[in-house]
Amino acid sequence: MLEIDMNKREEQLISIWETHTAAEFELKDADAAIATMTENPVLIHVPVNTGATGKEALRNFYRDIFIPQMPPDIELELLTRTVGEHRIIDEFILHLTHSLQMDWFAPGIKATNKKLSIPFVGIITFENDKIDSEHIYWDQATVLKQMGLLDNSLPVLGKDQCKRLLNINAPVNELIQ
């Protein structure tokens, strides 16, 4: 009985999370995204400390910054998902063309028109049937390398960072000399 209840809970959390991400990436609707969240949600894009705390502040962030600064070709490629009673952890690759300034992602950097692929991890916590927090992690050095803003002498892979996540037989230890 407990296993059936956990499966239902996992399905419920996945449905809420997928409704939320569809509101952001497909519908581009801040109100629909906020409708999936608690009264005091938190979003932290950890590498650059963007996001907001509180329903109205987060609605404004989604409406004024995150959604309008999303390139039209943005795509999430899910690699792994772990679901617990109150949490989802997604590992995914974000693919996009940096065709506009994205202050939520690379504050103050003008569009480079470079194609980017970046590994991400999202830790999403839930309170009852609402999203309570999103902590989103990525390697900002790989972003800056792909944008052409980091010197090639630095030990940063850039787009190649995704290769072994997609193919375990891809080259390894390329930065070790």
Tell me what the structure shows.
By secondary structure, this protein is of the alpha+beta class. It has a single domain (2-166), classed as Roll (Nuclear Transport Factor 2, Chain: A). The protein has 5 helices and 6 strands. It has a 6-stranded mixed sheet with strand order 2-1-6-5-4-3. It is globular and about 50 Å long. It starts with a helix and ends in an 11-residue tail after the last helix. The mean pLDDT is 94.
Helix content bin: 25-40%
Please state the CA-atom Rg, rounded to the nearest Å: 17 Å
Query: Distance between termini?
Result: 55 Å
Mean pLDDT over the full residue set: 94
CATH class: Alpha Beta
CATH topology: Nuclear Transport Factor 2, Chain: A
**Number of E strands:** 6
- What share of residues are in beta strands? 25-35%
* Shape estimate: globular
Order of helices and strands: HHEEHEEEEHH
Biggest sheet: strands, sense, closure?
A: 6 strands, mixed
Protein traits:
alpha+beta; Nuclear Transport Factor 2, Chain: A
Explain briefly what this protein structure is:
With 177 residues, this protein is of the alpha+beta class. It has five helices and six strands.
Give the topology.
Elements: H1 2-27, H2 30-34, E1 37-45, E2 50-53, H3 55-66, E3 75-83, E4 87-97, E5 115-127, E6 130-138, H4 140-146, H5 163-166
Parallel strand pairs: 1-6
Antiparallel strand pairs: 1-2, 3-4, 4-5, 5-6
